[in-house]
Amino acid sequence: MKLKSLINNIEELLCAGFLLTMITIVIFNVFSRYLSNYSLYWAEEVATICFVWAVFMGASATYKHKMDIGIDMLVKKTSQQTQDKIRLCVNLLLLLLNGYLFYISIVFTTIAFDKPTAVLGVSSAVVNSALIVSFALITWHTLRFLVTDFNKLILNSKTFKG
User: For the chain, which residues make up each domain, given as ranges?
Assistant: First the structure.
């Protein structure tokens, strides 16, 4: 796989890796408990950590591909130029919101840094850092969408005048 393709699909790859790890651990733990009455004491906590990471990486991937839910019934009834302006305003608002969520996730993770997890005793920042990575990526994608929509609006206004 090319490096550029790897970087472009980082959220999907991380999500798949965490899901695969979680499923493997849970299945192994179920069979181990069933066959030998032995259970991995750390399996539930690691599966939970993997689940949290998979959810937030999946959310970022969904946002990146614009597969999140949007209701645009009223916007579609306007002209293309008005739609472009609305899209630009929405992306600007989302940039502010996602940037704030990124900041809050840093604060939240910093506060939880000294709190150990119940079983493994590792820092809760291992779990909470999924928020930081996810909202950083979502903010980055929002910035990309904003620049693209701004360039489209400028191009359309030049075409409309000319």
Answer: 1-67, 70-162
